From TrEMBL:
InterPro entries for the chain: SoxD, SoxD_sf
Species: Roseovarius atlanticus
Name this protein carries in UniProt: Sarcosine oxidase subunit delta
UniProt GO MF annotations: sarcosine oxidase activity
GO BP: tetrahydrofolate metabolic process
Pfam families on file: SoxD
Length: 109
């Protein structure tokens, strides 16, 4: 079971306290976007074995969206951070790199 901590209200709880929202840091396209851009947004997702950056919502608490860095194999949570962040904070990247040698931040387009 995952134990997550909401970066907004500080509540730490089991994953049942939260709702998963898919991959984090995807570029969302507005009106006027091309069909290719929209297709890529809907269907080109990472599904890694290992480190994954995800969106979560504190459903049974403050209701805010945030991001979590976790390992899909070990269920280790490296940290959580606000959803308005464009990439994981340095301390979380460093923690992941220390635990998963060779991991690197994937640039999103």
């Amino acid at each position: 079971m995952l134990i997550l901590e909401c970066p907004y209200c500080g509540v730490k709880g089991e994953e049942t306290e939260f709702t998963g929202g898919g991959e984090a840091h995807l570029k969302r396209f507005g009106p006027g976007a091309s069909d290719d851009d929209f297709h890529g947004y809907l269907f080109k997702r990472e599904n890694p074995k290992g480190v994954h950056l995800e969106r979560w919502r504190h459903t049974n608490g403050c209701g805010k969206w945030f991001h979590a860095a976790r390992n899909t194999v070990t269920l280790e949570v490296y940290g959580t951070y606000p959803a308005q962040t464009t990439e994981p904070p340095k301390d979380i990247k460093d923690k992941i790199s220390a635990r998963v040698p060779g991991w690197s931040w994937r640039e999103f387009s």
